[in-house]
Structures are given as structure tokens and as C-alpha cells.
């Protein structure tokens, strides 16, 4: 408490002084106090920035002369990440158009690519069977690594489809990419003058579409007996990719009127045609491509492990253990989409039964049909064999829906000849829509 005493005395004295000050001085003192208070509250001015320039001289050995000076650290990265970033390694891209007589093997020779890679590539193509018969006009893009190893191959099959093979570990992965495009409908109609074929052609239908029309109604109409004055309407759906007609089309609906009768056909969801009363116009599919007694030696298995490599190597078909020369039947009406020889598949046939359904027959000894040929269900299209990469005489048979292999022994096939009960409503709706689009109110 003692040290407070002088402070107390000081305050007392100060108050006494202030009290004794003349009034003017007192006010001056208050003013001074306020002034000091204001000054203390004004924010401080920021200091002016000062820029310091320095120059640094590099020792002569490290001077960066041009962009390549950075290559040394990148080269180190390159080795470590070569697999992840193959582009570091100075890959070369080669692009060209397939010419008449070009084959994959002469392309490989020209680019000095190994025969081993060609073999692996053809193995990977077994699912698509497109590499053995390249078509003039198709574009191909190769990506070749610094050791002249093929990293990827891309084939632009047509406007809609691109097939890419990519090297992964030591085999190629195949990927088929399909552009959906836009489907637009066109109506073709006419009054017959001369033959049906001539009039239909004149209306704008293509030969393939006319063939589809006559094949669909061949059991109902004798097309040679359509006479002048008979009429037809055909509704076609055409695919456009980036505004360009891809030449893919579907005949959606047909209506032919002769003097006394009207014939109709409507394409249903299952890829087959039915008349207005839901009765089937295409024959039912067969389950098996061979007749008589047979043994199945290998079933469809997407996850089959390769016995030697232990890798997943899908078996996309069903193998029938039949001796060479056994008759092979088309399981349904259709058109031969492709037929030829493939080093892995041997002699093969791909049949198109509808936009959705295709079937394939591999390792044949003899092909009895040609590309573009229309074939009826049950027609003998080939003789079985042991060609291509095959370990014994057998028929490998595949069923694909929208380019995807399915188990041919289990797939629910359109086997009956009429629209199934549960699909009746959907069929009727589609039929009525097509009729409306053809400008038909009642039939
Ligand atoms: Zn097989």
C-alpha cells in the first residue's frame, strides 16, 4: 500500500492545479486532449513499397539454351512410367486407307511389325471377325511404339462402327464402338406399272429393301402376279450418322393391295414380321444348326479360363462335336452378312436374321453360300470342319444379339409363329403407329 501514497498525493495535487486553473486554460487543456485522441485514432499510412531488382548470373555449365534442356529429367520419368504414359516414348502414328488387295499381313510387313503381334491381333479379332477381310476404303490407324511394337490398331469399319485393339500386358483387347446415329422414317409408295420390282425401284426403295419386302411376304403373295393398278406402301427407317445416310435401314411396315386383298407386315421388337392380326410371317428359328444325334463338347462360357495361359478367354459359342463334312443349317431366314476365311475362325459364315439377331458358324470345311445371299431357315449353308485354330473336327456355333454373344442353347428364341400373349399390346401399339405414319386409317 505504501507505494500508492505518492500516486495519491500526485492526483490530489493535479486536481488542485486543474481546479485552480483559469477557465481559458482549462478549456485549452480539454481541447489538447481531444486533439491528441483524434490523432491517435487516425489509421497509420501504409509504407511505400520498395522494389528491389537483383540480377543472378548462372554458372556457364547450367545455362538453359533451349526447350530441350529440360529433356534430362523427363527421360528419367520416361523409363519409370513408360507403361502408364506410352506417349513419352516417341510413338509413331500411322494412318491410311485400305486399298484393293491390302491385307493385314502386308500392312504389317510394310510397317515392319512382328508376326507374333499379327497372331495376337487375329486371336483378339475372333469375337468380331473383321480383320481378315479388310474392305477397300476403310481407314486404319496404327500406334507403334519405339521398339516397333504395335500398341493399338483402330479400324473405321463404316460410318457407324469402329473396332479398336489395344495392347494390354501381352495380348490385345478388342473394343467395338457403335454410333447409334439418328433413325428417320421414309414412306415409299406407288401404283404398279410393269413389274413390282421396277415400280418399287422407281419409288426410291433400294434393291435390298425390295428383297426384304418380297422375302417377308413371299409365302402370301406371288410378286410376279401383281398387276397394273395394285398399290404398295413401304415404311422404312434409315440411319443417319452425323447427318449422312449410313446405308443401314429397316423395313418397318409393308402394305400391299391387289384387286381383292390387302397384305400387311409389321416389324416387331423381336426383329420379325407379323401381319395385322399378329400372325408371324417369318419362320420360327431352329435351336440347333445340325441335325440328328450330336454331342456338345464345349458350352458357352464368358468366363472360361484358358487352359494354358490361365487368363479369362471367353467361349462365345457352343461346340458341336461332329465329324468333318456334317451338314450345317441356317437356324433362321436371313442374309449372309459375311463369309470367308479367318486365321483363328477358319472358314466362317455370319448370318443376319434381323437387325438384332446374327448367327455365326466357324471352322467349316466348305462354305456353300456367298455374301449377300438370302437364305431360308433350314437351308444347308456349309459343311463342318476343322479349319483355323481348332483342336479337332467340330462346329462352333454362335448367336449374337446386337453384336453381343449370348448362349445359343439358352437364349429365348422367337420360336412361335404368332406374337406372344404378353407382347400383344406392345405389338398393337406399334402396328397402329406405323399405319398412321403410312397414312392408313383403316384396313
Ligand atoms: Zn467353340
TrEMBL record:
Specify the Csd3-like second N-terminal domain's residue ranges. Answer: 181-301
Where is the protein found, in the record's own terms? Answer: Cell envelope
Q: Which Gene3D superfamilies does the UniProt record give?
A: 3.10.450.350, Glucose Permease (Domain IIA)
Residue ranges of domain M23ase beta-sheet core in the record: 314-407
Keyword tags: Hydrolase, Membrane, Metal-binding, Metalloprotease, Protease, Transmembrane, Transmembrane helix, Zinc
Is this entry keyworded Thylakoid?
Answer: no
**Membrane spanning residue stretches:** 26-44
Q: Which GO terms describe its molecular function?
A: metal ion binding; metalloendopeptidase activity
Cofactors: Zn(2+)
According to its UniProt entry, one GO biological process term is:
proteolysis
Q: Which InterPro entries match?
A: Cell_wall_metabolism_enzyme (IPR050570), Csd3_N2 (IPR045834), Dup_hybrid_motif (IPR011055), M23ase_b-sheet_dom (IPR016047)
Alphabetical GO CC annotations of the entry are: cell envelope
Q: Name one Pfam family in it.
A: Csd3_N2
Extract the PANTHER family matched here. MUREIN DD-ENDOPEPTIDASE MEPM, PEPTIDASE-RELATED
Question: What's this protein's name?
Answer: Peptidase M23B
Source organism per UniProt: Psychromonas ingrahamii (strain DSM 17664 / CCUG 51855 / 37)
Organismal lineage: Bacteria, Pseudomonadati, Pseudomonadota, Gammaproteobacteria, Alteromonadales
Amino acid at each position: 500500500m505504501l507505494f500508492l501514497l505518492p500516486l495519491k498525493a500526485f492526483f490530489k495535487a493535479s486536481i488542485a492545479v486543474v481546479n485552480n486553473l483559469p477557465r481559458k486554460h482549462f478549456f485549452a487543456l480539454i481541447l489538447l486532449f481531444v486533439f491528441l485522441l483524434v490523432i491517435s485514432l487516425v489509421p497509420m499510412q501504409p509504407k511505400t513499397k520498395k522494389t528491389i531488382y537483383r540480377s543472378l548470373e548462372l554458372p556457364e555449365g547450367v545455362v538453359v539454351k533451349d526447350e530441350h534442356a529440360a529433356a534430362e529429367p523427363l527421360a528419367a520419368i520416361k523409363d519409370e512410367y513408360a507403361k502408364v504414359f506410352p506417349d513419352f516414348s516417341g510413338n509413331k502414328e500411322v494412318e491410311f486407307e485400305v486399298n484393293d488387295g491390302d491385307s493385314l499381313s502386308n500392312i504389317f510387313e510394310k510397317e515392319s511389325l512382328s508376326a507374333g503381334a499379327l497372331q495376337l491381333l487375329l486371336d483378339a479379332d475372333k469375337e468380331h471377325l473383321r480383320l481378315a477381310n479388310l474392305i477397300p476404303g476403310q481407314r486404319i490407324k496404327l500406334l507403334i511404339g519405339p521398339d516397333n511394337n504395335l500398341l493399338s490398331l483402330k479400324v473405321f469399319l463404316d460410318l457407324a462402327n469402329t473396332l479398336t485393339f489395344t495392347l494390354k500386358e501381352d495380348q490385345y483387347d478388342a473394343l467395338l464402338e457403335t454410333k447409334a446415329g439418328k433413325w428417320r422414317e421414309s414412306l415409299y409408295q406407288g401404283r404398279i406399272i410393269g413389274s413390282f420390282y421396277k415400280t418399287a425401284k422407281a419409288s426410291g426403295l433400294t434393291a435390298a429393301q425390295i428383297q426384304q419386302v418380297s422375302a417377308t411376304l413371299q409365302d402370301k403373295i406371288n410378286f410376279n402376279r401383281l398387276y397394273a393398278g395394285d398399290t404398295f406402301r413401304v415404311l422404312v427407317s434409315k440411319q443417319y450418322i452425323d447427318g449422312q445416310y449410313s446405308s443401314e435401314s429397316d423395313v418397318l411396315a409393308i402394305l400391299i393391295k391387289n384387286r381383292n386383298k390387302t397384305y400387311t407386315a409389321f416389324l416387331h421388337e423381336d426383329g420379325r414380321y407379323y401381319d395385322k392380326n399378329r400372325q408371324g410371317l417369318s419362320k420360327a428359328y431352329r435351336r440347333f444348326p445340325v441335325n440328328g444325334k450330336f454331342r456338345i463338347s464345349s458350352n458357352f462360357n464368358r468366363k472360361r479360363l484358358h487352359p494354358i495361359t490361365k487368363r479369362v478367354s471367353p467361349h462365345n459359342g457352343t461346340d458341336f462335336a461332329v465329324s468333318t463334312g456334317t451338314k450345317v443349317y441356317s437356324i433362321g431366314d436371313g442374309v449372309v452378312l459375311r463369309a470367308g476365311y479367318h486365321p483363328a475362325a477358319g472358314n466362317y459364315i455370319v448370318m443376319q436374321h434381323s437387325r438384332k439377331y446374327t448367327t455365326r458358324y466357324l471352322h467349316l470345311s466348305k462354305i456353300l453360300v456367298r455374301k449377300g445371299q438370302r437364305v431360308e431357315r433350314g437351308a444347308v449353308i456349309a459343311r463342318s470342319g476343322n479349319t483355323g485354330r481348332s483342336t479337332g473336327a467340330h462346329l462352333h456355333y454362335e448367336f449374337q444379339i446386337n453384336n453381343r454373344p449370348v448362349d445359343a442353347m439358352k437364349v429365348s428364341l422367337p420360336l412361335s409363329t404368332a406374337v406372344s400373349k404378353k407382347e400383344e399390346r406392345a405389338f398393337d401399339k406399334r402396328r397402329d403407329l406405323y399405319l398412321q405414319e403410312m397414312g392408313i386409317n383403316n384396313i
